[in-house]
Amino acid sequence: MSAPRFTALDDWLTWQETLHPSAIDLGLERVARVADRLQCRTPAPLVISIAGTNGKGSSLALLEAILSRAGYRVGCYTSPHLLRYNERLRLCGENVSDQALCDAFARIDAARGEDSLTYFEFGTLAALDIMSGAALDVALLEVGLGGRLDAVNIVDADAALITSIGIDHTEWLGQDRAAIAREKAGILRAACPAVCGDADPPQTLRTEAQRIGTRLRVLGEDFRLHEVARGWHWQGEGMQYQDLPRPALPGAHQLANAAAVLMLLETLAPRLPVTREAIDAGLKWVRLAGRVQRLPGRVEQVLDVSHNAQAALALADTLGKLPLAGKTHAVLGMMRDKDCAAFAGALAAQVSHWYPVGLAGERASPVGVLADTLAGIAGTEHVTACTSLADAQALLGKTTRAGDRILVCGSFYTVAGWLALPPEFG
Questions:
Q1: Tally of CB atoms within 10 A around 272
Q2: Residue 48 confidence (pLDDT) above 90
Q3: Could you check whether 9-285 and 293-419 share the same CATH topology?
Q4: Are 166 and 238 in contact (CB under 8 A)?
Q5: Which helix H or strand E contains 353, and what residues bound it?
Q6: What is the CATH number of domain 293-419?
Q7: Domain boundaries in the chain?
Q8: Of 216, 149, 225, which is closest to residue 188 (Cα–Cα)?
Q9: What's the average model confidence in pLDDT over 136-143?
Q10: Per DSSP, which regions of 305-344 are E strands?
Q11: CA pair distance 5, 21, nearest whole angstrom
């Protein structure tokens, strides 16, 4: 093979951002051709694909925690990342190295021929290529967008988990839950286990499962959870667990994610058995940055990557149950394709003052647009526009008091940008 195009990870990533005419180009033909040349469409003996509007990352983290505690070698592919691109691929709990990614990118570049690939397609192929050589027991693949036409769907997964179904990415997936559910059903495979953690899935999801020839197990019908003072109970088809520990991930909605994970593990038990001890340990150990992530200090900071109305409702419920002596100051940055009014409206009862911020990139919503939308919800006296996250941090450093809370939300980019700032509220 000829010398690689680049030797540094940042150089590879910068080039990938400009290689394809559009940042998002849903379809499987190009990426599948390259994957076949690399022979990486079976990244592990057992593969689980995870799709959904919200809860994908949490469900993958729960699966990883439980399976790792059960002694399996687990590979995880997720997106997007917060601080480092390497976060997108974990092997046995460790982020992949720069060198491993660069080597994989070089192999992909050599194999792609005349096929142009998007940034996401390059990353997906790199994850599959690296996983294929890692002697894994199981690969967990988070779908990036939708399901049917997402690059991850070139893999015929042995099992599928579909989390909640809400309104998001309507430009690509459709305007209502029925259309969006049909796209997410694209990860299902005939006769392979399928679980849905949404207690009220659109009929289109059930119809597609029947058409494909797979049985869909649904929360509240085929498996159930029950909260109790000391934890929660779970009832599946042939198994049940009493007094489970609550997931270490904050929020009541995480119980639904955990319940769906346990149902999926029950369906896979003949191939991937786990003990009650591994389940308990995984639920207690699981961690995931950017999901109601609390940073203690004189002023507590809560970081959450939620960016649609469904996620905002779950966040509002969680915030309402957290102790608070003072006010909540919300720093909000969003992408222009998101419904700011619906998102902020769902959170409005928990927020005392809004600080819309400008984010870098063409996809970011202008700060003036965010400010106008928020003013319509909360009133202009409760909105202070900031040109950047750094400006918002500096202002909050002067105006917040001990016992207040700073909420940073609206996008992965908002949380990532905040985490990259020097600490201010320790």
A1: 19
A2: yes
A3: no
A4: no
A5: strand 353-356
A6: 3.90.190.20
A7: 9-285, 293-419
A8: 216
A9: 98
A10: 328-332
A11: 20
Q: Could you tell me which of 109, 95, 92, 104 has the C-alpha nearest to residue 44?
A: 92
Q: What is the pLDDT of residue 426?
A: 55
d(C-alpha 141, C-alpha 421), whole Å = 30
What distance in Å separates the CA atoms of residue 137 and residue 92, rounded to the nearest whole number? 10
- Please state the pTM of the whole predicted model: 0.94
Q: Which residues contact 282 (CB under 8 A, 6 or more apart)?
A: 62, 65, 66, 67, 68, 69, 70
* Residues 4-18 pLDDT 10s: 899 999 999 999 998
Q: How many CB atoms lie within 10 A of CB 196?
A: 30
The vertex-319 CA angle with 331 and 146, nearest 5°, equals 75
Answer for the pair 188, 214: CB distance below 8 angstroms, yes or no.
yes
Provide the token pair at 334: 């969003």
What is the number of alpha carbons within 13 Å of residue 40 lying toward its C-beta? 27
Q: Which of 310, 60, 263 is nearest to 164 (CA)?
A: 310
Residues 379-395 pLDDT 10s: 999 999 999 999 999 99
Distance CA 362, CA 269 (A): 46
Provide the CATH number for the domain formed by 9-285 in this structure. 3.40.1190.10
Integer-rounded Cα Rg, in Å, for the chain is 21
Average pLDDT, stretch 119-146? 95
What is d(CA 173, CA 167) in angstroms, rounded to the nearest whole number? Answer: 9
What's the rounded Cα separation, in Å, for the pair 348 and 407? 12
- Give me 143's structure tokens: 């779908």
**280: burial class by Cβ within 10 Å (0-12, 13-18, 19+)?**
middle
With vertex at residue 226, the alpha carbon angle to CA 225 and CA 230, rounded to the nearest 5 degrees, is 125
Task: Give the Cα separation of 190 and 402 in Å (integer).
Answer: 56
Tokens of 94: 């460790």
